[in-house]
Amino acid sequence: MKIVSRNEELLRDALSCLPQPSSRASLASCNKLIRFEDISAAAFKIQCGVQKTPCTYSRLSKQYGMDIYLKKEFLQYTGSVKERGVLYLLMSLPQEQQRKGVIVASDSNFSMAVAYHASELRMPVFVIVPTCTAPARVKTCRDYGAMVISYGTTAKDSQVHARRLAQENGYLYLEEEDSAVYLSGLGTVGLEVYEQVPKLDAVIFPAGGHCGLLAGSAAALKHLNPHISVIGVESESFPVLQQSLKAGHPTDDQACNNHHFYGDVSGVCFGSNSLQLTGKLVDKVVAVREEDILLSMLRLLEYERATIDAEGAIGLAALVAGKLPELKGKRVAVVICSGNLELHLLQQCIARALTLDSRVCRFSLVISDCPGDMSKLLELLAREETRVLDIKQERTFVTSELFTVQVICTVETRDKIHTAQLRNALLERYPTTAWTER
What we know:
Pfam families: PALP. The protein has 438 residues and is of the alpha/beta class. The protein is built from 18 helices and 15 strands. It has helices at residues 12-15, 27-30, 36-46, 61-64, 82-92, 95-100, 109-120, 135-144, 155-169, 180-196, 212-224, 240-247, 272-281, 290-304, 310-320, 343-356, 373-383, 416-429; strands spanning 2-4, 55-57, 67-72, 102-104, 125-129, 147-150, 172-175, 202-206, 229-235, 284-288, 331-336, 360-368, 387-394, 404-412, 434-435. It has a six-stranded mixed beta sheet, sandwiched between helices. A five-stranded mixed beta sheet has the order 1-7-4-5-6, sandwiched between helices. A four-stranded antiparallel beta sheet has the order 13-14-12-15.
């Protein structure tokens, strides 16, 4: 958590970190960045303000050949795990600063957590967002109790304005970073998973630029049981964490701006504390494709009845993509950290995922334009237990022989096997059937 204001010294004691360990530091010295006692203290302090979310056995276990337990952090009030770190930080502020208030400048999960918990603690809270911010996000922050101000056309404009307001009015400007207090709050997830699932073999977390959840929870888990594998997952499109670990310092790649679909996992790596903890404590970091994330979102919707965004689904995506074969037969917890999927993306994501899963298919074929031929095609589709989603006929621009019609059909099937059976049946009856590849 980055603290910027003229009263920055107010938090010096609460947020000061011990000296950075050298590359030869032992596991114990690395843990001094955040001690296990700090995480335990955070868990005790925030227990009345955040939910102890369930970590339940998933029906996906049989499909992927391991015992999967899902830590459902999307059930937090604001739909995000960020509440843990935010609440612990806000509760650590001096009373004078709590009276003056705090200010943030983004429309992220972090800002929504600040808006909600600052209001619950009766602190004045201001959220500055660009004018292009989705109206739903603005409304949500206002419903939580924040004063929301739209300013500027870019995130940088909003940040500059927020800093100016903080300087002029004595607000504390908060920007998500990796202070010991924030990481300790996020690390309480590791504590809960360890308590809720006995005999754990591995825990999978979202990674990317904002890897505080991964780093903080790894500190807790490795203290409790060094044999538990801690694994981070990020997007192949934004391999921020892997690049930073390879370079030995947080990368400053300007191409890694927060993508509206990926959220925080596409952001710039924001802190050396998280990076050093990750390098020392995390066993493995893997990258997954966008297709795998979409399929993970679909699996969670179908099997868990949970509407999850990309950041929340990326951990399970590593299992969907088969990136962790060593976990077969093991007991694995997956942290589902966020469920703030914007409504305009929901339909697009699910439709695309069904196509990737070969359950929504499109084909075209040419039949005679005679009475009864179309009904024969529909009878074949009914016999194959296929649901017709859309059907179009083209007569004018058909390049085949006269008095024929091109039929373009979109159908839904049960799974890949059902799709293959339909394809074979169509080719047997209509040899010229052309399948639209995704």
